[in-house]
Amino acid sequence: MQTTDVVKKIFIKSADHLMKQGKKAIVGLDTPLTPPSSCRYRSPEGLKCALGCLITSEFYTEDLEGQASVESEVLRAIQKSQGLPDAEIDRHDLVDLLSWLQWLHDSFSPVHWKERLVERARELDIDWAPKEKA
Description:
Radius of gyration: 14 Å
Number of helices: 5
Largest sheet: none
Helix content: 40-55%
Order of helices and strands: HHHHH
């Protein structure tokens, strides 16, 4: 299956954000013992996760916190924020990418993001090069 322009756009926006931010959006300490449930779309310090950067303030609510990327409220917030038509947000390839991005942010230390993002970009045939944190 060919990667759609929407999937490419979402991947690049999220990947660039993660590389620039270089930190997890969490509540509490970022240690190997920190449970994934402490990850947030937006942290109290203003950090955003891989999907949080796709949700504008207009469509963000605290109710999104704790919901998985495949939950309809999260998908609709991303859809509205990114101006996506209904048919796009329900595409399997886009939902799969959103789930993968959330998994990457929540499951891995930021030091491992670059390698995994490069690998995923290659799998999806997306022309993306990491932009290091300034």
